[in-house]
Amino acid sequence: MSGAVLVVGAGFAGAVSARELADAGHAVEVIDRRPHVAGNAFDGPDAHGVLIHHYGPHIFHTNSDRIFAWLSRFTRWRPYEHRVLASVSGRLVPVPINRTTINRLYDLNLDGEGVARHLERVRVPHPDPPDSESLLLSTIGQDLCDRLFRGYSRKQWGIDLRQLDARVAGRIPVRTDDDDRYFTDRHQAMPADGYAALFARILDHPRIRVRLGVEFDPTRDGRGRRHVVYTGPVDAYFGHRFGQLPYRSLRFETEHHPGHALVQPVATINHPNEHAYTRVTEFKHMTGQQCAGTTLVREYPAAEGPPYYPVPTAASAALHRRYQDLVDATPGVSFVGRLAEYRYYNMDQVVAAALRTAARIADRLAGASPAAGQAAASATSE
C-alpha cells in the first residue's frame, strides 16, 4: 500500500491511531510481528476453554468519559472492579493498603482515625522522596514497605526500591477506610466479548489493511509512506545505537483446576516474598465466564524476553533522553505508546496518546495534500 500511512503494531497505540486516521479518510496499513491483533491485551481460550489474557491481566479503568465513549463504539462492557490480596506472613491482606490490611497484619481493631495515627507514627518523613523506597517509607514506614513492597519490587523490576523512580510507588494509594478496590476510576469494566473482539472491531474498516506475522525494518518499510506510526521499542527503531534500554519481560505458567468454579477469593493474589512469581491471576473473576473448571496463571518477571515494562530509573531516563533526541530529529514518524515513548502508561493513557497523535498526523497530512498546497499557493498569489 504505497502512499498509505503505515502503523507498526496492532496493540492499543497502533489500533486506535489506525482507526482515527482511517475515519479521517486516510488509507492505513497495520503490521504486527505477532500472529494476532490486540498486542499484550490479547485474550482467548486456553486448552480447557477458559478465557485468559495471554500476556497478563488487563483491567480497563479510566476517569475519561471521552476515552470510555470512544472505546464503547466497539464493545459492550461488563462492569468489573478489580480487587487484589497479598499473601503476607500466612495471611491474605488487601492491596492497596487499607484499614483491613493494618488491622489484619497487626491484630488491631483501629478505626479510620486510628489507622491514620498508626501510619503517622511509623512513617519516616522525607520532604521530597527521590525514589520509591523513600516515598514508601515516608507514607507507610519500614515494616509495611518491607513486607508488602520490597520483595515484590525486587522480583518485578530486578532492582531494589531505592533504585526505582518515586513515581512507581506513587501509583499505589494508601487508604484509612475499608475500600478494597484496586482502582477508583469512574469507569471500570471489561470488554464483554473480550479484548481480541474489541480490537477486531476497531480495525474493521475499509481503509485499513492488517498484515500479521510481519517484521518491521525502518530502513525499508517506511519508504513511499505518507507517514509512519511506530509503537515498538524506541531503541530498536534506531538499531540500539546508544545501547539497549532496559525493559522487564514476563514468563507465564498456567494451572488448570477441573471441576472448580473458582479457587481464589479474588482475581489476583500478590506474592511479594515467598515465591519466584509475583502474582497469580484467576481470570474468571474478571470475565464472568461460566464454564467447567478454572485456570490460574502465575507471572514470573524476567530480564530477557519480549519487552513489557520500561524500567523507571535515573539511568534509563538518561539513556532514553538520547533516543528522544533522535525521535525529535526524525520527520515523518510518530512514536506512540508504552514502548515507543518509554513510559509506564495505563491502557487509557495509551488510548489518549494515540488519539492526540492521530489528530496531529491528520492535520499535518491535510495541510500537505495537493489540494491544500494549491489553495496555499493561490492565497499567496493573491
From TrEMBL:
Tell me what this protein is called: UDP-galactopyranose mutase
Q: Which family does it belong to?
A: Belongs to the UDP-galactopyranose/dTDP-fucopyranose mutase family.
PANTHER family hit by this protein: UDP-GALACTOPYRANOSE MUTASE
Q: Which GO terms describe its molecular function?
A: flavin adenine dinucleotide binding; UDP-galactopyranose mutase activity
Keywords associated with the record: FAD, Flavoprotein, Isomerase
* Organism superkingdom: Bacteria
Q: Which GO terms describe its cellular component?
A: cytosol
- A Pfam family assignment: GLF
Which InterPro entries did the record assign? UDP-GALP_mutase, UDP-GalPyranose_mutase_C
**Names of the cofactor(s):** FAD
**Annotated source species:** Stella humosa
Boundaries of each UDP-galactopyranose mutase C-terminal domain copy? Answer: 148-344
